[in-house]
Amino acid sequence: MVYNVWETCFFVPGFSQSSCASWAQAWGTFVAVVVTLVLATREQRRIRKSDLAAGKIVIAAVKLVLARSMTKVDELGTDVVLRLNDQAYFPLPVHVGQLREIQWPSQEQLLIVGRVNPDAAVALAQAGVLLASIKEILESMVDQRGIEALPHQSVLFNLRPVVTSTFDLMRTAWEKLLPH
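Below the sequence we write its predicted structure tokens.
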């Protein structure tokens, strides 16, 4: 049978030009959707990989800050307990100075950590709030000239659970940041 190639649709005779155009449009749409899904998936994987890489870097930095902070908060807790038992002088200026030195992770860093490990980011955020409370309490005991007021037993008694909770949250964050 002899037929004109220009009168076929995808080299299949018998289709009209309008039905051929409809089929071509349908296949084109299908291919466009598939290509879009493939490209979106690749981009999502690339972004996730980039987030993980950035997260690992930020987590490494946060772990250093967290380790130093845990040491300082643990020392503070020990001194609070000793002072409550009247066994030692409470070195208020030392603790205020040490707590002022802590550079707690920023909100941006916590968001990056949260993409990798949401539980650790929540524990870090909660510990950060409590740490700010401890700083505020201790700084209120030092007057504007830098002269310390002797901490009242009631202040130290109320400070002890805050310090303990802060340390516990820091330890929780530390454990969640460790590789599994």
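Helices lie at 17-84, 92-101, 107-116, 118-140, 153-177.
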